[in-house]
Amino acid sequence: MRIFTTLLLIIVALFSTASIGQTQSATPLIFSPPLGYRDNYTYGAPYYADYGIKNPFLNGIRCFGVDWSKLYHAGEDWFRIGENGENIPIPGTEVTAVADGTVIWAQPINYPGRVVIISHTGSLLPQTTYSVYSHLAEPLNVQIGNAVVRGQRLGTVLDQLDNSHLHWEIRYFADGSNIYPNYPACNSPYAAGVGYTYPEHPDNFPSPTTGYTDPFTFTTNHAGVFLPHLMRFEDTYEPNDSFATATPINTGVWYESFISSTSDNDWYSFSVTVPSGSARNIEVYLQSIPPGTNYTLELRSPSNQLLSSSTQPSNNDEFIRYYTTSSGTYRARIYSVSGSSYSDSYRLKVDVVQAPTQ
Predict the structure, then answer these.
(1) Where does CATH 2.60.120.380 sit in the chain?
(2) What confidence tens digit (pLDDT) does each residue in 301-340 have?
(3) Could you tell me which CATH class the domain 8-228 is placed in?
(4) Of 212, 210, 223, 6, which Cα lies nearest the Cα of 124?
């Protein structure tokens, strides 16, 4: 099995500093994450706050005139990932530039919190790319026009109690102040935009060629951007077609792999420790299932008993939550109901979180 677990993918590309809509001279760059540049913690987005997700836990009518739960998330909300996969609020955590570039927006708005936008251009990118960092506290450490380098401190995460997180985006447009012609109430004097789209998926908003993009997919397609919750398996080197040959994985980490044929089975094993008198919820997420396919997700006990399965139609995301008081090595199994893809991967993550005893 060949496993890619590189903690910092390095690539030299030609980038330039830019103001909105203006490109200047090129300099070599390396990409790194917006959190964790100078600490050893792991950060990532829970399934309900990932890119392109409709968050069922949000409610209230937004400027689009529909309930918040119907909106697509245009970025990722990063928390710190705890040892048991829990999401830990991060007030005061340092936020850093993902690459060299120019700050084109750093003004005080109540997002809530402040927003910084940096422009990046380079020969290995499809077009000028913008990184957006939202929910920052005052004071910021940069201002409009500053040239910044990778890892430079932009500010810190705003204290929003249990919801303290960084909302960050990768997108192909600079100014989001007037991109909602059908929903003028969503427009504002601010370049950040509102962080959500409706009814279009963010990939296609405000247009298919100048919209948002999934930071995870951007990472895999443009080496050099590192996400701390990414590991990748090449399916050809993955002998995990049975319970006995399941590939060991860590909880709280996204994995990417393939169902290369309709007869392919992918098994993953992970450890669950439940202290005496306690309980845990095992949460298994299967996302980014390739179009034209239909995969099933199963959770298996240490003795290979089927505990739960998720059988959503078509390539809809699969999710399992299972309550347990038993420690052991559990398995997640993925297999095809119809279709397969050797070139288009799925994403898998397992979280083990504390649960109330019953």
Answers:
(1) 231-355
(2) 999 999 999 999 999 999 999 999 999 999 999 999 999 8
(3) mainly beta
(4) 223
